[in-house]
Amino acid sequence: MTEASGGGGGLAVDATIRRGGFSLTVAFEVPPGQVLGVLGPNGAGKTTLLRALAGLTPVAEGRVMLGGQVVDDAADGTFLDAARRPAGYVFQDYRLFPHLTVADNVAFSPRARGLGKTAARQAARRWLDRLGLAGLADRKPAELSGGQAQRVALARALAGDPALLLLDEPLAALDARTRLDVQAELRQHLAGFPGPCLLVTHDPLEALVLADRLLVLEDGRIVQDSTPARVARQPATEYVAKLVGLNLYAGRADGATVTFDTGGSFTVPDHGCHGEVLVAVRPSSVVVSGEPPHATSARNVWAAEVTGLTMLADRVRIDLHGAPAALADVTPAAVSELSLAPGSRVWLSVKATDLEVYTRDHGQPQ
Amino acid sequence: MAADLLGPPSRLSARDRARRAGRGGGNPRSVPVPLLVPAVIAVAFLVLPLAGLIVRAPWGRLGPVLAGSDATAALWLSLWTATVSTGVSLVIGVPLAWVLARTSFPGQRLLRALVTLPLVLPPVVGGVALLLAFGRTGFVGRLLDDWFGLTIPFTPLAVVMAETFVAMPFLVITVEGALRSADQGFEEAAATLGATRMTVFRRVTVPLIAPSLGAGAVLCWARALGEFGATITFAGSFPGRTETMPIAVYYALENDPDAAIALSLVLLLVSVVVLVSLRDRWLRGGAVQ
């Protein structure tokens, strides 16, 4: 993050947006060329944020700057409405105009922004070629596959030559197979976009693959703003931990011991950490034994009860109730050898070196 | 015992079985008498008069009868005035429908009620109201007379105005409903692509509601074509000038019933054509596709 983000083509937001009874307060900057993934559960305010940036919903407080220009400021009333704001928006349901051909859909924005019919056609043609859609120019949106419609929606948004690109769950409407192909393509196209780009998703994998940086929204506020790698390793909240498949515990550190808010404690590598911390543990690092393990190198051993088992691709994820509760991954063979079933009493152990301990206060990406 | 109470089983052919299977079990051919009798009376009431018209028509000399009356002039007058009033309704009624559907302001509900009032108002009352406003001594008509020497009542212009007054609400209501049920997501998308509200209206909204717009226009045209009460009150019945088809039918009935029947047949034909053209759109609810 640099000082220049607000100017020189970047996006700078420090605002509160209200819609109905919902309120979203955010402050962040996106430099040109960066893809910011916006991750969060349903109702966290992801779409509300995009709508505000596009100029479809004015902010209630604060302001939005794009390329050094104020586009929305609740204090002095400045507002650049959607039609005049240089933002390209790819809607979740694409919203391709059903009565226009693919070429006319893509030519819509150049035409609306003042280009003549022929010039708009040429601009559309360039984008169609660039996104490999030239063969579909004369089709109607109803005659497109999901992946094709997604590309047309992207071409239509880019054809207006926007300074800011907004994508709302661009792959959500696709089936699993198409999604992987389109994802790889989309990554390429986003890399070619010079301005700031926001990509809303609730799929952590999509966020990890497509975004340079992640913003996690929960209940109308930012709970984490960091690199994808760091979000995956050190999730800031239960929701993020669940998304990336980690056990997450909040507690108080006192040197080599962390005492959890929900009961139990862990011995951790002593980095002289004191105060509020989070501890993340991979389910595969949690060892399950039928009897109290003797002579183990694991520093943390505790009793737990199996409450559920779920078959994953090649392993079984076990829900465990104890102090603390945990998710553990074991092989199907281990399940049968230990006769694991809901209600089974087991012992869990984790090596201190497998624990990721970090402070609860998560600021800017490192 | 139980079998006695239920009575002997009835017989079901393979065809009946298939038919019932497709309709959720009930016999589609069996209608309870208390429903059947009124339904048959209703059908008879609606169809018999039309049948009478067709039976009594002077089929052998239809041509001469039509030629001998003022039919050609009346039909021509009816067709062009109905078409012009539909055009006027489109030009001013569609924007009105947009304002009612897409904006909100104080008194909007009252405005909607006023706009739709002509739907339920007896047309004669509409004619009287038009006369009071635009007549030579009316509060608008007097000004028009003083400033421009323009007199509206009892002219073809008055016919168009009477028809528009009565028919336009049909168009407004149809289009407003279509605008309300249309997906506004497309309009938002157009806005993010740089389109002003006017461009959105022209290039996105209107094409999307085109089916309903067509249905509303045809309905409006049909209502204008059949207009009688407001027209005869405000425009009178000068043959060749303000005597439209319905008015011609009414007067022909007094001295030349055959001509009245022949003229009615022509109107019936036009109505059937309209109904057929609307079958797919209006009768299925005029949904936006």
Structure overview:
The complex is a heterodimer of chains A (366) and B (289). Chain A has 366 residues and is of the alpha+beta class. Chain A has two domains: 3-240, Rossmann fold (3-Layer(aba) Sandwich), CATH 3.40.50.300; 247-359, OB fold (Dihydrolipoamide Acetyltransferase, E2P) (Beta Barrel). Helix content of chain A is 25%, strand content 33%. Chain A has nine helices and 20 strands. Chain A has helices spanning 46-54, 102-112, 117-130, 146-159, 176-191, 204-210, 228-233, 238-244, 332-337, and strands spanning 11-19, 22-30, 35-39, 61-66, 69-73, 87-90, 164-168, 197-201, 213-218, 221-226, 247-254, 257-260, 265-267, 274-281, 287-289, 300-311, 316-322, 326-330, 345-350, 356-359. In chain A, the strands form four sheets. Chain A has a six-stranded mixed β-sheet, with helices on both faces. In chain A, helix 2 crosses helix 3 (117-130), helix 3 (117-130) packs across helix 4 and helix 4 (146-159) packs parallel to helix 5 (176-191). Chain A is elongated and about 80 Å long. Chain A starts with 10 loop residues before the first strand and ends in a 7-residue tail after the last strand. The model of chain A is unreliable at 1-6 (pLDDT under 50). In chain B, helix 5 crosses helix 12. Chain B folds into two domains: 2-52, no CATH class; 62-284, MetI-like (MetI-like fold), CATH 1.10.3720.10. Chain B has helices spanning 2-6, 14-22, 33-56, 62-68, 71-102, 108-120, 123-134, 141-148, 156-181, 185-192, 197-208, 210-226, 229-234, 245-255, 257-278. The longest helix of chain B is centred in the first third of the chain and has 32 residues, at 71-102. Chain B has 289 residues and is mostly helical. Helices cover 73% and strands 0% of the residues of chain B. Chains A and B meet through strand 6 and helix 2 of A and helix 10 and helix 11 of B.
